[in-house]
Amino acid sequence: xxxxxxxxxxxxxxxxxxxxxxxxxxxxxxxxxxxxxxxxxxxxxxxxxxxxxxxxxxxxxxxxxxxxxxxxxxxxxxxxxxxxxxxxxxxxxxxxxxxxxxxxxxxxxxxxxxxxxxxxxxxxxxxxxxxxxxxxxxxxxxxxxxxxxxxxxxxxxxxxxxxxxxxxxxxxxxxxxxxxxxxxxxxxxxxxxxxxxxxxxxxxxxxxxx
Length: 210
Ligand SMILES: [Zn+2]
Ligand SMILES: [Zn+2]
What we know:
Blueprint (H helix, E strand, L loop, with lengths): L1 E7 L7 E7 L4 E5 L6 H9 L3 E6 L5 H4 L2 H8 L2 E5 L14 H4 L10 E3 L4 E4 L2 E7 L8 E5 L2 E5 L2 E2 L2 E2 L9 H12 L7 E4 L5 E2 H7 L7
Parallel strand pairs: 3-4, 4-5, 5-6, 10-13
Antiparallel strand pairs: 1-2, 2-3, 7-8, 8-9, 9-10, 11-12, 13-14
The structure holds zinc ion (2 copies).
One zinc ion (ZN) binds next to loops.
Protein backbone atom coordinates (compact mmCIF):
# COMPACT_ATOMS: atom_id res chain seq x y z
CA UNK A 1 0.00 0.00 0.00
CA UNK A 2 1.36 3.39 -1.08
CA UNK A 3 1.28 6.22 1.47
CA UNK A 4 1.54 9.89 0.48
CA UNK A 5 2.49 12.71 2.85
CA UNK A 6 2.65 16.42 2.04
CA UNK A 7 5.17 18.96 3.36
CA UNK A 8 5.50 22.66 2.58
CA UNK A 9 9.13 23.55 3.24
CA UNK A 10 9.55 26.88 1.46
CA UNK A 11 7.42 29.71 2.86
CA UNK A 12 6.24 32.13 0.20
CA UNK A 13 6.32 29.58 -2.63
CA UNK A 14 4.05 26.94 -1.13
CA UNK A 15 5.76 24.25 -3.15
CA UNK A 16 4.42 20.81 -2.28
CA UNK A 17 7.04 18.27 -1.28
CA UNK A 18 5.65 14.73 -1.44
CA UNK A 19 6.95 11.82 0.60
CA UNK A 20 5.74 8.66 -1.11
CA UNK A 21 6.38 5.23 0.39
CA UNK A 22 5.30 1.64 0.54
CA UNK A 23 3.95 0.94 4.01
CA UNK A 24 5.06 -2.71 3.84
CA UNK A 25 8.60 -2.57 2.53
CA UNK A 26 9.21 0.94 4.01
CA UNK A 27 10.86 1.96 0.75
CA UNK A 28 10.07 5.36 -0.67
CA UNK A 29 10.98 8.42 -2.68
CA UNK A 30 10.92 12.14 -1.97
CA UNK A 31 9.42 14.34 -4.70
CA UNK A 32 10.49 18.00 -5.04
CA UNK A 33 12.21 18.78 -1.73
CA UNK A 34 11.79 22.55 -1.81
CA UNK A 35 14.23 23.36 0.99
CA UNK A 36 16.39 21.65 3.62
CA UNK A 37 14.43 20.51 6.68
CA UNK A 38 15.83 18.74 9.74
CA UNK A 39 12.27 18.13 10.84
CA UNK A 40 11.39 16.17 7.71
CA UNK A 41 14.68 14.28 7.85
CA UNK A 42 13.85 13.25 11.43
CA UNK A 43 10.32 12.22 10.47
CA UNK A 44 11.64 10.01 7.68
CA UNK A 45 13.95 8.34 10.15
CA UNK A 46 11.14 7.93 12.70
CA UNK A 47 9.00 6.31 10.00
CA UNK A 48 11.87 3.84 9.39
CA UNK A 49 11.90 4.59 5.69
CA UNK A 50 14.61 3.90 3.18
CA UNK A 51 14.50 6.62 0.51
CA UNK A 52 16.09 5.50 -2.76
CA UNK A 53 15.46 8.59 -4.90
CA UNK A 54 14.82 12.28 -4.78
CA UNK A 55 12.75 12.96 -7.88
CA UNK A 56 12.40 16.48 -9.26
CA UNK A 57 9.31 17.01 -11.41
CA UNK A 58 11.30 19.80 -13.08
CA UNK A 59 14.33 21.99 -12.46
CA UNK A 60 12.91 25.23 -11.04
CA UNK A 61 14.59 26.53 -7.88
CA UNK A 62 11.51 26.13 -5.69
CA UNK A 63 11.47 22.36 -6.37
CA UNK A 64 15.16 21.52 -5.92
CA UNK A 65 16.34 23.63 -2.97
CA UNK A 66 16.50 20.62 -0.61
CA UNK A 67 18.13 18.23 -3.10
CA UNK A 68 21.67 18.30 -1.76
CA UNK A 69 20.57 18.27 1.88
CA UNK A 70 18.27 15.27 1.48
CA UNK A 71 20.53 13.39 -0.94
CA UNK A 72 23.25 13.52 1.67
CA UNK A 73 21.04 12.93 4.69
CA UNK A 74 19.17 10.01 3.15
CA UNK A 75 21.83 8.53 0.89
CA UNK A 76 19.40 8.95 -2.00
CA UNK A 77 19.99 9.45 -5.73
CA UNK A 78 18.79 12.60 -7.50
CA UNK A 79 16.64 11.87 -10.54
CA UNK A 80 15.31 14.40 -13.06
CA UNK A 81 14.40 14.41 -16.74
CA UNK A 82 17.45 14.74 -18.93
CA UNK A 83 16.24 18.01 -20.46
CA UNK A 84 15.93 19.74 -17.07
CA UNK A 85 19.07 18.22 -15.53
CA UNK A 86 21.32 21.19 -16.49
CA UNK A 87 19.09 23.47 -14.37
CA UNK A 88 20.23 21.76 -11.17
CA UNK A 89 23.72 23.23 -11.26
CA UNK A 90 22.87 26.64 -12.69
CA UNK A 91 21.11 29.29 -10.61
CA UNK A 92 20.29 31.27 -13.75
CA UNK A 93 18.71 28.37 -15.60
CA UNK A 94 16.69 27.30 -12.53
CA UNK A 95 15.68 30.96 -12.04
CA UNK A 96 16.50 30.97 -8.31
CA UNK A 97 18.92 33.86 -8.84
CA UNK A 98 16.00 36.08 -9.84
CA UNK A 99 13.68 35.10 -7.01
CA UNK A 100 15.47 34.24 -3.77
CA UNK A 101 18.78 32.82 -2.62
CA UNK A 102 20.62 31.33 -5.59
CA UNK A 103 20.23 27.56 -5.49
CA UNK A 104 22.67 25.04 -6.83
CA UNK A 105 21.85 21.38 -6.33
CA UNK A 106 24.14 18.40 -6.56
CA UNK A 107 24.19 17.09 -10.12
CA UNK A 108 21.69 14.45 -11.20
CA UNK A 109 22.60 10.82 -10.51
CA UNK A 110 19.92 9.47 -12.80
CA UNK A 111 18.53 11.01 -15.98
CA UNK A 112 14.89 10.21 -16.64
CA UNK A 113 13.05 9.77 -19.91
CA UNK A 114 9.43 9.19 -20.83
CA UNK A 115 8.36 5.65 -19.94
CA UNK A 116 11.05 5.04 -17.34
CA UNK A 117 10.05 3.44 -14.05
CA UNK A 118 10.95 4.32 -10.49
CA UNK A 119 10.30 1.51 -8.05
CA UNK A 120 8.95 1.82 -4.53
CA UNK A 121 9.10 -1.67 -3.06
CA UNK A 122 7.21 -3.79 -5.56
CA UNK A 123 5.31 -0.81 -6.97
CA UNK A 124 6.42 0.88 -10.17
CA UNK A 125 5.85 4.58 -10.86
CA UNK A 126 5.88 5.53 -14.52
CA UNK A 127 7.63 8.66 -15.72
CA UNK A 128 5.38 10.69 -18.05
CA UNK A 129 7.23 13.44 -19.91
CA UNK A 130 4.95 16.51 -19.87
CA UNK A 131 6.86 19.45 -21.38
CA UNK A 132 5.34 22.93 -21.39
CA UNK A 133 6.10 24.47 -17.99
CA UNK A 134 9.73 23.48 -18.63
CA UNK A 135 11.22 21.37 -21.45
CA UNK A 136 11.93 18.43 -19.12
CA UNK A 137 8.87 18.53 -16.87
CA UNK A 138 7.59 15.13 -15.77
CA UNK A 139 4.66 13.62 -13.93
CA UNK A 140 4.79 10.33 -12.03
CA UNK A 141 1.90 7.88 -12.23
CA UNK A 142 1.03 4.73 -10.34
CA UNK A 143 -2.36 3.09 -9.92
CA UNK A 144 -4.63 6.16 -9.87
CA UNK A 145 -2.07 8.39 -8.17
CA UNK A 146 -0.50 11.19 -10.20
CA UNK A 147 2.22 13.57 -9.09
CA UNK A 148 1.76 16.40 -11.55
CA UNK A 149 4.52 18.87 -10.66
CA UNK A 150 3.85 22.30 -12.13
CA UNK A 151 2.02 20.86 -15.16
CA UNK A 152 -1.51 20.49 -13.75
CA UNK A 153 -2.97 22.25 -10.71
CA UNK A 154 -6.43 22.38 -9.20
CA UNK A 155 -8.34 24.46 -11.75
CA UNK A 156 -5.11 25.82 -13.16
CA UNK A 157 -1.97 24.92 -15.07
CA UNK A 158 1.71 25.80 -14.75
CA UNK A 159 2.99 29.12 -16.01
CA UNK A 160 4.57 29.08 -19.45
CA UNK A 161 5.96 32.61 -19.65
CA UNK A 162 9.46 31.75 -18.38
CA UNK A 163 12.19 30.84 -20.90
CA UNK A 164 11.71 27.21 -21.97
CA UNK A 165 7.96 27.38 -21.38
CA UNK A 166 5.36 26.73 -24.07
CA UNK A 167 1.62 27.16 -23.73
CA UNK A 168 0.89 24.87 -26.70
CA UNK A 169 3.08 22.13 -25.29
CA UNK A 170 1.59 22.21 -21.78
CA UNK A 171 -1.92 22.03 -23.21
CA UNK A 172 -0.88 19.07 -25.38
CA UNK A 173 0.81 17.37 -22.43
CA UNK A 174 -2.27 17.71 -20.23
CA UNK A 175 -4.73 16.69 -22.91
CA UNK A 176 -2.85 13.79 -24.45
CA UNK A 177 -0.87 12.42 -21.50
CA UNK A 178 -2.87 13.25 -18.35
CA UNK A 179 -6.54 13.44 -19.33
CA UNK A 180 -6.28 9.89 -20.72
CA UNK A 181 -5.60 8.55 -17.21
CA UNK A 182 -8.50 7.03 -15.25
CA UNK A 183 -11.03 9.67 -14.13
CA UNK A 184 -10.67 8.68 -10.49
CA UNK A 185 -6.91 9.37 -10.53
CA UNK A 186 -5.98 11.60 -7.59
CA UNK A 187 -3.69 14.46 -8.64
CA UNK A 188 -0.98 15.64 -6.23
CA UNK A 189 0.29 18.90 -7.73
CA UNK A 190 3.46 20.95 -7.23
CA UNK A 191 1.46 23.77 -5.66
CA UNK A 192 -1.98 24.01 -4.07
CA UNK A 193 -4.52 21.40 -3.05
CA UNK A 194 -4.95 17.96 -4.58
CA UNK A 195 -7.60 17.31 -7.19
CA UNK A 196 -8.61 14.54 -9.62
CA UNK A 197 -8.48 13.94 -13.35
CA UNK A 198 -12.29 13.81 -13.40
CA UNK A 199 -12.64 17.26 -11.81
CA UNK A 200 -10.01 18.90 -14.02
CA UNK A 201 -11.45 17.46 -17.24
CA UNK A 202 -14.78 18.99 -16.23
CA UNK A 203 -13.88 22.38 -14.83
CA UNK A 204 -10.24 23.31 -15.53
CA UNK A 205 -10.60 26.73 -17.20
CA UNK A 206 -7.30 26.43 -19.12
CA UNK A 207 -7.53 22.92 -20.58
CA UNK A 208 -10.94 21.39 -21.14
CA UNK A 209 -11.49 17.66 -21.33
CA UNK A 210 -13.28 17.57 -24.70
ZN1 LIG B 1 8.05 25.39 -11.77
ZN1 LIG C 1 6.79 25.43 -8.70
